[in-house]
Specification:
Elements: H1 11-29, H2 34-43, H3 49-63, E1 66-67, E2 71-73, E3 78-80, E4 85-87, E5 91-93, E6 98-100, E7 109-111, E8 115-117, E9 122-123, E10 126-128, E11 142-144, E12 147-149, E13 153-155, E14 160-161, E15 166-167, E16 172-173, E17 178-179, E18 187-190, E19 195-199
């Protein structure tokens, strides 16, 4: 006997349903100066439910260097300098993440397609220098280094990606891992600092 199981609509289906309405909001927000849009984005950081998701998405699409379809930024995400962000399609950023997008031409953050970022993840695109022994570390220059998260990546809860690193396609960063160097393609990394613990068998991936 077959069971009647009702399936909830997936994010992509919901996005397709409201895409035209969202596009109107994007066009409306683009009438405001960039600084005003960023302030509105911060104001709606904790707005709840589908309305909050929609407002953040429309604002982000009007602010970021580029922003694809079906991008979900959940409640409580600190997204700093979103004007330096390039993000692809089908990306989710779960609650309470702290994500820097750089502060000059050398920095910036690129998130490609089909990326899942779990709750509490930190992405750093800046770092303190410390070479000048005559200055306290807190007074030394801060430099920006670009971070790239490529296609089909899963970043586990409370993981940290440090400035200047690339997480290559098909990879998984384990929960609470600290990425201090590039993550190879189709690999699973874990630990502090993060190391490859397994290579994915992509022939049998679904």
């Amino acid at each position: 006997m077959e069971e009647n199981v009702s399936k909830k609509p997936r994010g992509r289906e919901i996005f397709s349903k409201y895409k035209k309405i969202i596009s109107l909001f994007v066009a409306y927000y683009k009438l405001f100066p960039l600084k005003k849009r960023i302030k509105l984005f911060v104001k709606h950081r904790n707005s709840r439910g589908k309305i909050g998701l929609g407002i953040r998405y429309a604002l982000l699409k009007s602010i970021a260097k580029s922003c694809g379809d079906n991008v979900s930024v959940f409640e409580g995400v600190f997204l700093l300098n979103p004007q330096n962000l390039s993000v692809g399609n089908n990306v989710s950023i779960q609650p309470l993440c702290y994500i820097e997008c750089g502060n000059d031409e050398n920095g910036g953050l690129v998130i490609e397609d089909d990326v899942s970022i779990a709750h509490g993840v930190t992405v750093m695109t800046t770092t303190h220098t410390y070479e000048d022994e005559s200055l306290p570390i807190k007074d030394q220059p801060v430099v920006s280094k670009k971070v790239v998260i490529k296609n089909n990546v899963w970043i586990g809860a409370k993981a940290t990606i440090l400035a200047g690193n690339t997480v290559n396609s098909g990879s998984i960063v384990g929960a609470a891992a600290v990425v201090t160097k590039d993550v190879p393609e189709n690999s699973i990394v874990a630990g502090v600092p993060a190391k490859v613990i397994k290579t994915r068998n992509t022939e049998h991936s679904v």
